[in-house]
């Protein structure tokens, strides 16, 4: 009997301790949050922002290669389109473009209509089939030959090239580093002008999408003659930008 009473007393004491901790935890958290807010309000500070960019040569290119075919029936349009696109893919393989570098974007077959100028019911004139693939190249010297080979085998539309970086992290971090340095330099100038000194960093964040590359707009190219002059390609540079915002403490 005594041992049962003793065990019950211990259980009640343990439950009381748990309840006490749970009851005090929100108050402790609220007190800490209030303390942090008070500290943020008390510490004099200034907020600065910095932007920086890094220009770097791209090491990857993406482009779309499309074939459009027209025929009186949907089946014939699709068949003609498949034959031409297969020839295009064979030409790319001969240039060393592997299957991992080619991905189908879309395959479409749709009717075409002629609409009378005076209005009325449109007339079905045939069907158009379209097959578009995306080609990704890490050897930028192949861009021109790939485009010429595709057009020579019957491709009707080229979009791109769209230049990118296979691994933009290094350039992004370089831009972030420069952006932080610029922000701190501006903070020093502002503080000196105001007759105060810069202390520790209270808050720091990156704005927007740092490291997002800026690209030239894709171009659309079409060529009917297979013996046209080789396509010249200049990769140039792409720009990676970063922006940061700092709030630093200041003191006399």
SS class: alpha+beta
CATH topology category name of the domain at 60-164: Alpha-Beta Plaits
Mean pLDDT: 83
Strand content: 25-35%
- Helical content stands at 25-40%
The ordered H/E elements are: HEEHEEHEHEEEE
CATH architecture of the domain at 60-164: 2-Layer Sandwich
Gyration radius, in Å: 33 Å
The CATH superfamily of the domain at 60-164 turns out to be Protein of unknown function (DUF541), domain 2
How would a crystallographer describe the biggest sheet?
A: 5 strands, antiparallel
Quickly name the level 1 CATH class of the domain at 60-164. Alpha Beta
Helical region count? 4
Low-confidence stretches: 1-9, 11-25, 208-226
Morphology: elongated
Keywords: Signal
InterPro entries: 26kDa_periplasmic_antigen (IPR052022), SIMPL/DUF541 (IPR007497)
Signal peptide: 1-31
Pfam families: SIMPL (PF04402)
């Amino acid at each position: 009997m005594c041992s049962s009473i003793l065990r019950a007393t211990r259980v009640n004491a343990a439950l009381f301790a748990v309840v006490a901790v749970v009851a005090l935890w929100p108050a402790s958290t609220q007190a800490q949050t209030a303390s942090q807010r008070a500290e943020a309000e008390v510490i004099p500070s200034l907020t600065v922002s910095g932007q920086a960019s890094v220009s770097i040569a791209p090491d990857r290119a993406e482009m779309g290669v499309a074939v459009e075919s027209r025929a009186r029936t949907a089946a014939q349009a699709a068949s003609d389109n498949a034959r031409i696109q297969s020839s295009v893919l064979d030409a790319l393989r001969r240039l060393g473009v592997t299957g991992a570098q080619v991905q189908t974007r879309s395959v479409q077959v749709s009717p075409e209509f002629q609409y009378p100028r005076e209005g009325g019911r449109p007339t079905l004139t045939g069907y158009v089939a379209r097959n578009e693939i995306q080609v990704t190249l890490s050897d930028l010297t192949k861009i021109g030959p790939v485009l010429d080979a595709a057009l020579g085998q019957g491709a009707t539309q080229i979009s791109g090239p769209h230049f990118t970086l296979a691994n933009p992290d290094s350039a992004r971090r370089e831009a972030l580093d420069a952006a932080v340095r610029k922000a701190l330099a501006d903070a020093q100038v502002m503080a000196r002008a105001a007759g105060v000194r810069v202390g520790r960093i209270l808050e720091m964040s990156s704005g927007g999408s740092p490291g997002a590359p800026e690209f030239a707009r894709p171009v659309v190219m079409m060529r009917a003659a297979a013996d046209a002059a080789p396509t010249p390609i200049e990769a140039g540079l792409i720009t990676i930008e970063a922006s940061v915002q700092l709030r630093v403490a200041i003191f006399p």
